[in-house]
Write a structure and sequence with these properties.
4-stranded antiparallel beta sheet; alpha+beta; two-stranded parallel ribbon; Multidrug efflux transporter AcrB transmembrane fold; single chain; 6 strands; Alpha-Beta Plaits
Length: about 300
């Protein structure tokens, strides 16, 4: 009979927590010193969609813009390459759409401007505020949900794991100078749900094992057993998700490239935190059988 896999994930919990703390501090440092490379959704500016009769390379379009006032604009190809999205600075907001369209079509004789979307300072600030509120509401909802379903120690562990994932993922975007726009924000919100789901699966098994194990079994053994029991599910789910994310990165085009990068990093960091950060946090909070006695007593009373 094959022996079941049972790795002691918590034996070096101080090391893993230290590594996580280093990544968090590096991420915060990058966010404070460099900040995020905000897209036009949050910084303001104009997005110009240009359609070509045949597929074009982004570099060839960039060459056309050299020496013009659009030289510093950001480029993204859409679909099969017949459409290019040009993102220009907020300075262009003072001009009319017709003037921008005329200038671009003079530079790109084969291109036709399909639409121009302008995001002013007021709209960009509202989007920034809404994005921050969305993250705060998500974390608040997680805290309430886990406290109702489990205990306050579980809630703190879940929120800490999710905050860890978001801070590190944001730090990666800051260090790599990747553009942060609404699609990336959507990816981070998805990461919150993904990370929470992984953590809840582990926590649910921890709770059940505490209720069914003998009283002399230590908390470390129970928590470690729970992580091992859910490990195959965690790795299979993360692996299949990463395959899809990788396909999006390769085939999805420039429009969703940063979305797939954010989702990919988020899944990797979330998988790590559900195994090492969440379980280690429960140990530092001294989770024990006593935390579940009230639940058992309530069940007996009913």
């Amino acid at each position: 009979m094959r022996k079941k896999f049972n790795y002691n994930f918590l034996s070096k919990r101080n090391l893993w927590i230290s590594i996580s703390a280093i990544f968090v501090f590096l991420s915060i440092g990058s966010l404070v010193t460099q900040g995020l490379q905000l897209g036009t959704d949050f910084s303001g500016g104009a997005s110009v969609s240009i359609e070509f009769p045949n597929s074009v390379e982004a570099e060839s379009v960039r060459t056309m813009l050299v020496g013009t006032r659009f030289e510093s604009a950001k480029l993204q190809t859409i679909g099969i390459g017949k459409e290019v999205l040009l993102k220009v600075a907020p300075d262009f907001l003072e001009e009319s759409k017709d003037d921008i369209k005329t200038d671009i079509e003079e530079i790109m004789t084969d291109g036709k401007v399909v639409f121009i979307d302008m995001v002013g300072p007021q709209i960009s600030s509202e989007l920034t505020e809404d994005g921050i509120l969305a993250l705060i509401y998500a974390l608040g909802g997680i805290l309430i949900y886990v406290m109702v379903r489990f205990t306050s120690k579980f809630a703190f562990g879940a929120v800490l794991a999710v905050v860890h994932d978001i801070v590190v993922s944001l730090g990666i975007f800051s260090m790599l100078r990747l553009e942060f726009d609404l699609t990336v924000l959507a990816a981070f919100l998805a990461v919150i749900g993904y990370s929470l789901n992984d953590t809840i699966v582990v926590f649910d098994r921890v709770r059940e094992n505490f209720k069914t194990s003998r009283s002399e079994v230590s908390s470390e053994v129970i928590i470690n057993l729970s992580i091992n029991q859910t490990l195959s599910r965690t790795l299979v789910t993360s692996g299949t998700t990463l395959v899809v994310v990788f396909a999006l990165f390769l085939l999805g085009g420039d429009m969703i490239k940063n979305f797939s990068i954010a989702l990919g990093f988020g899944v990797i960091v979330g998988t790590y935190s559900s195994i090492y950060v969440a379980g280690s946090t429960l140990m530092f909070l001294e989770l024990s059988r006593d935390d579940f006695l009230s639940d058992e007593q309530n069940t007996e009373d009913v």
